[in-house]
Specification:
Layout lengths: L1 H30 L7 H13 L1 E6 L8 E5 L5 H9 L2 E6 L8 H7 L3 E3 L4 H16 L3 E4 L20 H6 L7 E14 L2 E2 L1 H4 L11 H11 L2 E7 L3 E4 L4 H20 L6
Parallel strand pairs: 1-8, 2-5, 2-6, 3-4, 3-5
Antiparallel strand pairs: 6-7, 6-8, 6-9
Amino acid sequence: MITWLRIGCAVFVICVVSLVLLPLQILCLRFDWKLRRYLPRSWHRIICYWLGIRIHVVGELERRRPLMLASNHASWLDILVLSAVADVAFIAKSEVRDWPVFGLFAQWQKSVFIEREQKRKTGDQVSEIAERMANGEIMVLFPEGTTSDGNRLLDVKSSLFGAAAAALPKTPDAVVHVQPVAVAYTRVHGVAMGRYYRPLAAWPGDIELMPHLKGIFACGAIDVDVCFGEAVDYRADTNRKEVSATVARRIRSMLAGRLLGREIA
């Protein structure tokens, strides 16, 4: 009874907040007001609070711009968590645009949807990412290209870092800062998750969205660590595969450290 009462309160608050903030965000998008960059953070903080997502930040967000965040991707929750921590926009695969509910939220946050099969459109989208980073927006890239089980980092696709290279001509110092980020789901109700319970938060592709969302509401107490690593400078003479390998190594180290409950150098 208490669980369903808590879920009902959470749904009510989320709906009320959404009815207030979403029309304002749509208006900001319509006229491209800068406020559109900052409203999602407030919304996501409220959502995380009422879902019982407790966020612990380790390290600091890179202060220099232009900035691209490269993060592991375990769940749709990553988007809520990262958006609650910083004013960001996402680089997503085109399929996300058609997802129920989340597709609309992604559009309202002005995500860039990559059409990987259509090379001509991909070029335009990469140019948009470059332009927005050059204007000070923080873009989040999930270089695995898909979600995982939350216990490890999948293979990183170096081609997805092409947006950083495309932004170089638009930057005053001809450098883009790529900061690795590890999102680690560590506890449920204060108890270490371990591999067995991590699927409560992680969302691999073979799990349906709505049952997983219902499970998150029912759980009501998940701890997540967001670790910011040392940024990599991407310049004109930078090797994209080397940057990809460095970023992947740093994400793996931070992710393993948080999941094991200790730091790994």
